[in-house]
Amino acid sequence: MSGRLVHIGSAVVDYVYRIDALPAPGTEKTASSFAQVAGGGFNMMVAASRTGMTVVFGGQLGSGPNGDFLRAAFAAESIETLTPASPAMDSGNCVAMISSDAERTFVSWPGAESVLSLAMMAPVRVALGDWVFASGYTLSYPGSRNALADWIEALPVNIPFVFDPTPVVADIPRTVLDRVLARITWLSCNMTEAAEIAGLGDVEALAARLLSSHCPRAEGVVIRAGAKGCFVRLADGSTKTVPGFKVAALDTNGAGDTHIGAFVSSLSRGVPAFEAARYANAAAALSVTRHGGSSAPNDEEIQEFLSHHDRSSTVHGRKQEA
After folding, report:
1. DSSP assignment string, 74-100
2. How many domains does the chain have?
3. Which keywords does the record carry (predicted)?
């Protein structure tokens, strides 16, 4: 049975503008569409929730209109918030510009999610069967990084902890980052983030170095490669390149979050890591065919996608590798 996902991260309000291309300096563009949506850690939580996990949020939401908007979004996805709202700040926001090639550019403004203390986190309690997740964003904020690192270090040894360093990993003080990496059960990152932590090298060398030199307690490392899929290395030295799925991408925003949420959800059900990675690749592939960062599919949609793909890749009774 799947346990809870206890998300100790940040959620913000995304203001999403769709444009044909980024404006040149000093020029202006008119967006083809605009949407206000819940973003940040919300996308990962939605992916885990829609694929079977009970999800609770242990970060901070604000007390203004952004916080109210996020609470409504959480409620719509049956995600419980464990901590009281910040009495002094509203939640932050992020402007996301999505270009016609499905790439995205962000500008963010931190809010209540950037301030966290152990006292604020007192209501956040974990139990056997829970999985804990944190991201680099919360560790990058001076007002939350030390409390979060302390809380992570104090986790019981039998609680799996999953970490996504995110694109802001370079902004995390190395002493703080090393403390968190030392407690990781699973690390999920892309190649750029892996290289920021472990130095240059090919994907196999980086994954091996992450496990041997940076994440000594980890069961494995996932290095995501977008549409190409991901590379998985386990602590026992076994590795696999898990190919992605060819789809017509409309919006890549939130694909990495969807991948992590689906991967953790699958692992929590006892699915082996390589199979869980394929499941996560399918979830991410489906998500990019839809608009919006929180466009994660549910388990039924993922299973149907995988089943259809398996049928399509069988030629004369022999299953062909994707």
Report:
1. HHHTTPEE-SPPPSS----EEEEEE-T
2. 1
3. Kinase, Transferase
DSSP-based three-state secondary structure for 123:
coil
Beta-strand ranges (E) seen in the chain are 4-7, 11-18, 33-40, 54-57, 80-81, 93-98, 104-109, 131-135, 161-164, 186-190, 220-224, 229-234, 239-243, 314-315, 318-319
Please give the pLDDT value at position 292. 67
CA dist 149 and 152 (Å) reads: 5
What's the CATH code of the domain at 222? 3.40.1190.20
- Contact present, 188 and 157 (Cβ < 8 Å): no
Residue 237 buriedness (CB in 10 A; 0-12 / 13-18 / 19+): exposed
pTM: 0.91
Residue 27, C-beta contacts closer than 8 angstroms, at least 6 positions apart:
none
Question: What pLDDT sits at residue 149?
Answer: 97
**Predicted pLDDT at 3:** 79
Q: Is residue 96 situated within a structural domain?
A: yes
28 is a domain residue: no
226 belongs to a structural domain? yes
